Amino acid sequence: MGSALIAQTLGSPSPPSDSVRVQVNLINVPVSVIDQQGQPVTGLHRDDFSLAEDGHSESIRVFQAITVHPLFMVLAIDTSVSVRKDLPSAKQAAADLAASLLGRNDHVELLGFAGNVTRVVPFTGNLHELDHGLRALHGDGPTALYAAIERAANDLASQSGRKVIVVISDGSNSVDGVDYDQARTAALRAQASIESIILEPIGANAGRDLGGEHALIQLARGTGGEYFYADGATPLQDAMTRLSLGLRSEYMLGYYPTQQSTVVEGFRRIQLRLTNPALSGAYRLRYRTGYYAEATH
After folding, report:
1. Contact at 8 Å (CB) between 143 and 82?
2. 31, 69, 110, 280: which has the highest count of C-beta atoms within 10 A?
3. How many CA atoms lie within 13 A of 124 on its CB side?
4. d(CA 250, CA 40)
5. How many Å apart are CA 44 and CA 48, to the nearest integer?
């Protein structure tokens, strides 16, 4: 894959004394367009999209129909007692996902989480290293789900390129210390999408953590990711295949915010839509809902 899109700082007038100056960088927005059958839609163009920040219309300055920037992916695999039976298939599915996605300039990191979060394999482009780490993956006990997401986001924060956190879990979080909001904020600050692979018990609802499943769905939606259920009807491998296809069919949009760079730092909301009403009614968009503007000093 090609080199990363490089954020550039624009000049702006001196800020008033009662405001905080923030950087105006190129904001990259990975976008997937999904049809009613859940399949990615390709062949769209820049003019098919309309973008706004906090309700203010923005010009799309960068458009790539096929993303060419490096991919940095964290595989965060639940190894706790509640999903122990799924661990062998999760290992194989994770290996297949990495093999299908990683190119020459891409990197993957492996985290295992149960009561604690362990970095099993640091970022590498070597699939043999990943396979070795997956074979060594084991665990038991409670589930530090949100701590794993925060750790993955922090590891991705300094990377440049497309950043993805793939979480394979049933959604339970039974370890205190990091909560849902902290995990979500960390992912948004890192500009990483959360792709949730939800392990669902076969059969009845016994043993399911419906609140945890809902949290994984919302984490995916809020960060521009997708969620997939892996159960008897949809094997884990099928969910990973759909995820791989979606990530390889993304559009990349980029814009320079034109609102004054002297506003107070904080969360900026991104609104994206399809300009053609017919397309808008037939397809849905998957993208991150915003980003955090940081103050300069």
Report:
1. yes
2. 110
3. 16
4. 8
5. 6
Residue 141's SS3 state is coil
At residue 187, the 3 state secondary structure works out as: helix
pLDDT digits 0-9 by tens, 121-130: 999 999 999 9
Asked if 19 and 264 count as a contact pair (C-beta separation under 8 A), the reply is yes
Alpha helices in the chain (DSSP H): 87-101, 127-136, 145-156, 180-190, 210-222, 236-247, 277-282
pLDDT of 21 higher than 70: no
| pLDDT surpassing 60 at residue 246 | yes
Tokens for 178, please give them.
């990091």
Residues 6+ apart with CB under 8 A from 205: none
Contact present, 293 and 22 (Cβ < 8 Å): yes
Structure tokens at 70: 């490096």
Question: In sequence order, what are the residues at sequence separation of 6 or more whose Cβ sits closer than 8 angstroms to the Cβ of residue 251?
Answer: 30, 31, 32, 33, 44, 49, 63, 64, 65, 67
The arithmetic mean of pLDDT across residues 266-289, rounded, is 94
Q: Is 12 in contact with 261 (CB distance < 8 Å)? A: yes
**How many other C-beta atoms are found inside a 10 Å radius of the C-beta of residue 249?**
17
The structure tokens 């820049």 sit at: 46
Block residue for tokens 């993805």: 164
Strands 107-113, 290-293: parallel, antiparallel or unpaired by DSSP?
unpaired
Residue 69 has what pLDDT? Answer: 77
Please count the other Cβ atoms lying within 10 Å of the Cβ belonging to residue 190. 23
Nearest to 287 by CA among 54, 5, 51: 51
Rg of the chain, C-alpha, whole Å: 19
- Say what the pLDDT of residue 293 is: 84
pLDDT tens readout for residues 39-56: 999 999 999 999 999 999
* Cβ-contact 256, 225 below 8 angstroms: no
